[in-house]
Design goal:
The protein is α+β, with helices and mostly antiparallel strands. The protein has 14 helices and nine strands. It is globular. Bound molecules: 2-acetamido-2-deoxy-1-O-phosphono-alpha-D-glucopyranose and magnesium ion (MG). The site of 2-acetamido-2-deoxy-1-O-phosphono-alpha-D-glucopyranose has 10 residues, from loops.
């Protein structure tokens, strides 16, 4: 592995030499490595999963386009400061922002933001507030990016009806054993589907605008400084046209679940109201262009994003785990149970959630 990474790394326009690597394995799709060199700068080298992301070149073009847009917003700052706030990609020797290896895999490289860290779980309210600010800021700073420049990498990524149809298809092909294991979840989905379509209907009725959205704002995709200031969003593979609820809802999904996404002891799953309030305050502080209609749909998005994820995890379980990386046999089923349990916890606190968002100025 080391030799392969070394050779791929040498294809990028980087003066420093490869010293060592460390796999960063919090993602479910791509393979990501932190590369240490003989200079101070470290790099993030990533192999894009070509069976999930078939429009690989467009994906990289999207990422670079968003990065350039953000760098422009900070153009008054010195380059070193910009590199602390924005993901900056590195050109390969042939001037593209990717390298295609002999096996046909696409690789890309970005500068690792110095002294930064990520969290799988938020430690305190300050982290939640900072996470809200940085997601709100991302939406605000990209609100003037022309959406026609961005390719839709994965169609209907957050469309409940499409995810539901994929799930129904998986049900027709799944083994009896896996269907039996999913019985309770199947009833849950049917009982909640109508409510989960509210956002989609609002989009169809053009009640809320399309924006540039990140689409994977889980807490572990936020970089923090050593002083716990949020620096920026990472993992921009899925930047696409969307509605801000995708980003708000997905951040709350991971930030406010007191347990990890795949925790099997469901007694550990609660909705952390303090984190929700802190995150939302931070989000509103930065995302000042939010409209009344957008705001009114924030509470339901808190249920919809875990529903989508639960549906996707269950679909993958029924399909014999072909999409998300899994570490044990029922991993996807456990993840789905986790997401649906979390929705029940949200429901218990839903009127409080609605009141908080209504009263926040
Ligand atoms: C996947 O690979 P990763 O961890 O960045 C998934 C997201 C999910 C996330 C759940 C392209 O992201 O949609 O929210 O897992 N990405 C894709 O942890 O499907
Ligand atoms: Mg991702």
């Amino acid at each position: 592995m080391e030799n392969q990474l070394k050779s791929i790394f040498s294809q990028f326009k980087i003066k420093a030499n490869f010293n060592s690597y460390q796999e960063l394995n919090s993602g479910h799709i791509n393979d990501t490595f932190l590369i240490t060199t003989d200079h101070k700068t470290q790099y993030v080298l990533q192999k894009i999963n070509g069976s999930v992301f078939t429009k690989t070149k467009e994906l990289i073009k999207n990422k670079v386009c968003v990065s350039n847009h953000l760098q422009n917003k900070f153009k008054n700052l010195p380059q070193a400061k910009i590199q602390q706030k924005v993901l900056c990609f590195v050109e390969a020797k042939d001037a593209a922002f990717y390298y295609k290896d002999v096996a046909g895999n696409y690789w890309n490289t970005s500068i690792f933001i110095k002294d930064s860290t990520t969290y799988l779980k938020a430690k305190n309210n300050l982290i939640a507030f900072e996470a809200g600010k940085v997601t709100g800021e991302f939406l605000e700073l990209t609100s003037d990016l022309e959406l026609s420049k961005i390719t839709t990498i994965l169609e209907d990524f957050h469309t409940v009806s499409v995810r539901y149809a994929q799930y129904k298809k998986a049900l027709t092909l799944a083994s009896k054993e896996r269907i039996n294991q999913s019985k309770k979840l199947i009833s849950f989905i049917e009982a909640h589907l109508n409510e989960m379509l509210i956002l989609e209907t609002a989009i169809q009725q053009q009640k809320i605008p399309f924006r540039l959205t990140h689409n994977d704002t889980k807490i572990s995709n936020i970089l923090f400084s050593k002083q716990d200031k949020a620096l920026c969003l990472i993992d921009t593979d899925t930047v696409m046209k969307g509605v801000l609820h995708f980003d708000y809802g997905d951040a709350i999904r991971t930030l406010c679940n007191t347990a990890n996404e795949d925790e099997t002891d469901v007694r550990k799953i609660e909705f952390n109201t303090d984190f929700f309030e802190s995150y939302t305050k931070g989000f509103f502080e930065k995302c000042t262009s939010i409209s009344t209609n957008e705001r009114d749909l924030l509470p339901i998005s808190i249920k919809i994003l875990p529903f989508l994820m639960g549906l996707r995890f269950l679909t993958d379980f029924l399909n014999n785990d072909v999409y998300f990386k899994t570490k044990h046999k029922n991993h996807n089923l456990d993840r789905a149970i986790n997401q649906f349990t979390f929705i029940n916890k949200i429901t218990q606190k839903f009127s409080r959630i609605e009141t908080f968002i209504k009263t926040l100025k």
